[in-house]
Amino acid sequence: MHLALLALALQLETAALIAEPQQPQVSAVADSVRDLKQARGAQASFERSRRSNLPIGYSSSTRCEVRVGRFCWWYDDSMPTQPPEAEVIGRHRADLLATLDRAAALHPGDEWLAAMRVHYRIDARNFASADSTARECRAAAWLCSALVGYVAHTMGESSRADSAFTDAVKTMAGDKACAWRDIRELLRDEDRDAYERQSCDARHELEARYWLLSRPQLGGAANDWKNEFNTRRVLAWLAERAATPQGLRWGNDAAALIMRFGWPTAWSRTDQVPGLVTEPNIIGHDPVPSFAFGPTQSVADQQRALPPEAWNLANRAAEARYAPRLVKRVAGVSAQLARFRRGDSTLLVAAFSASDDSLRAPIAVVGAALADGLSVLSVPDTGTTGRARVMLAGLPVMAGVEIADTTTRTLARVRFGYAQSPNGARLELSDLLMYRAGEAPATSLDSALARAIPGDSASRAKPIGVFWETYGLVAEGETVDLAVAVERIDRNWFRSARQRLGITPDDTPLRMRWTDARPPADRAAPHAVSLDLGNLEAGRYRITLTLTPVSGEAASSSREIELNDH
Questions:
Q1: CB 368 within 8 A of CB 392
Q2: CB of 387 within 8 A of CB of 351?
């Protein structure tokens, strides 16, 4: 009997010894829940305090340029004058950070604490501390990399931000990475429909093309707009899991608002009606000026060229906007770009001119982007007018001229998007390069570029030279039929109505045709003609050159030009 009791006692002691290590784990979980609840309560309390101490701002109920669910968004050309942040907000933020830091010291792997510690340091404009906090992150790998990217982008370190965000996406699970990359909120309706019908893997091509075409500066170290998009992803992830300055319930419309227009850099509140106990209406002030870098035409249609007008940076109803740190003003550039084949490579030449008075210390480059996203730039120039050339290992998807002045934060630029349809014909033509015709025609690309018109406007009182190259002629040379058509393309409704009534004569295309026989030079035959267009009215015209061989398909190339009276 005593033996049985002893055995039972030993069993009970053994069971107690086995169960004893589990008690601290249960206690640790309870402590973690308590600490996190306390931290979340402190964060919510801070945002309530912030709302109560924001300056009084102005909101017009009639202003609603873009409707996003519950929200009305409008664009102001300038940031309203804001008083310094109330001292009480700063004190409460410091208290919040102390609470978050204490909790993070006990629970270093908690994602919410790691993100909030970085976010509120940025909110306090303490970027150095935010950076060191992000670098010391011990939460999930994807989040730590994203937080480093968030801080780097805020500090203007575009290459480091791009690298960090790339690492973040690589370490995400498949579904999370797909949702993170999702750009549907940035796309036009026609592109969004095509995008949503595809699988996650199939969307990569359209995503890459969008980021290529919407890159603010080809000459930048990285795509700042894509970095901003990834930063907005971080902010949307935070806002979904925390109290926000607006104090509203989170929803898809709130997420869409952040992804399209970003996180406000200042806040104000409307004055409350006396006698009513209600939460103040919070106004978020986005950074200005901001710009619409996405094209206004379809980015999914790769068979259609995009003219410079496809990038309307001032579009107030654009799907998304972004305010780069170093750009406070955008301007246009008059430019003529032309592509010439050199084996498997492309020689891109440009003649450009910008007249904006804000360009006091300009740095000009001609750039082109290939399908893989790689950008190739010309040697930088310090003038607002010039000529340049760039050799590309392949065909450009987009090209343009950029003139940046960091002293006045002015960016002047022009873009051209090229159709990506393979030709495959035996005979091909280069782009047409317009130049100022003199007594002697241009006999080579160098001589034509030296006289190239910097833009798409020319006087109708002076002859215009047209230079191009022909590819695919037989080695012994061959006879081809050349035709040039000059057709007016700016017929507006008023002019068309007058033509139908017989008040204004019809626009009759000017056509010329002749035969040329010339052996090719290194299989790239240069040609040039001089056109006297003095008998045409001022207006916009399309010049089309068609080359027809004795056997085979015809090849053509065209360029638009504005004829003026100057």
A1: yes
A2: yes
User: Strand, helix or coil at 220?
Assistant: coil
- Please give the angle made by the CA atoms of 501, 503 and 505, to the nearest 5 degrees: 100
Question: Hunting for tokens 């030449």 — which residue is that?
Answer: 349
3-state helix, strand, coil in the chain (%, to 5): 35, 25, 40
Contact 467, 525 (CB under 8 A): no
Beginning with the edge strand found earlier in the chain, give each strand of the sheet holding 555-564 in spatial order.
457-459, 555-564, 539-549, 478-488, 510-518
pLDDT tens by residue, 286-321: 889 999 999 999 999 988 999 999 999 999 889 999
Cα–Cα distance for residue pair 451/446, rounded to 1 Å: 9
Is 333 in contact with 353 (CB distance < 8 Å)?
A: yes
pLDDT digits (tens, 9 = 90+) for 420-475: 876 677 889 999 999 999 878 899 999 999 999 999 999 999 999 999 999 988 87
Contact status, residue 293 vs residue 311, Cβ threshold 8 Å = yes
Distances (CA, A) of 310 to 226, 294, 297, 298, 355: 19, 9, 6, 9, 21
In DSSP notation, 162-207 reads HHHHHHHHHTS-HHHHHHHH--GGGS-HHHHHHHHTS-TGGGHHHH
Look at residue 9 in the predicted model and tell me its pLDDT: 34
Contact 330, 308 (CB under 8 A): no
First-last CA distance in the chain:
121
pTM tops 0.90, yes or no: no
Contact 222, 23 (CB under 8 A): no
DSSP track, 306-373? B-GGG--TT-TT-S--B--TT-SEEEE-EEEEEEEEETTEEEEEEEEE---TT-SS-EEEEEEEETTS
Confidence at residue 324, expressed as pLDDT on a 0 to 100 scale: 95
**Encoded tokens for 46:** 């801070």
* pLDDT tens digit sequence for 14-48: 333 334 454 556 566 677 789 899 999 999 999 99
Return the amino acid letter for 484: V
The per-residue pLDDT for 294 is 96
